[in-house]
Amino acid sequence: MNSLDYQSSDSEASLAGSRKTSKCLFPQKLYRILNNPEYNDYLWWNDSGDRFYLDRNRICESGLLLRHFKTGKRESFERQLRGYHFKLMIDNRKSKDKGKNIVDYSHPCFLRSQPALLVNVKNQGNHRKTQMRHQAKAAKAHALATAELAAISAPSSPETNAFTNAYSIIALYTHASRYPQ
Predict the structure, then answer these.
(1) Which GO terms describe its cellular component (predicted)?
(2) What is the total count of domains within the chain?
(3) Which residues of 115-136 are buried (b: 16+ CB within 10 A; e: fewer)?
(4) Model's pTM, two decimal places?
(5) Domain check: are 112 and 133 in the same one?
(6) What residues make up the domain containing 61?
(7) For residue 55, what is the DSSP state?
């Protein structure tokens, strides 16, 4: 297959149609690279097209990661694979049969013959940070509501207002310092 055939393949056209923006996301880049014979020494599909192999040594030496994924580190590339829920199927570093640096990754929606499924390959993101941010916002809203309720329901004396205002400030400061945004 020459480079012209690669560029005009049906799977590539299907992939281009499934993109919603001009920005190419990690799964789409990886899919294109796996389907480009130029890179078969570093990344290649298995025979059935439901997994791909990665030569850990050769991919670092090639400069492929830096050109296409803005990182020169294999560890960062593999961390990104895990972030998109790719599973390390076989780690051949522990095997005597194959090369020590060949690993095998799989994802149920990352299949050679079905580029339309790529939209289902999503980054898991940092859920803990998001959860902490939501907790901080909820705590802040609760503190404000509590302070407002106390201000409304309390008798209006200078001592009570001072206490309520001090309590509100302490509550906001405590929650804000525990859950920075």
Answers:
(1) nucleus
(2) 2
(3) bebbeebeeeeeeeeeeeeeeb
(4) 0.56
(5) no
(6) 3-120
(7) E
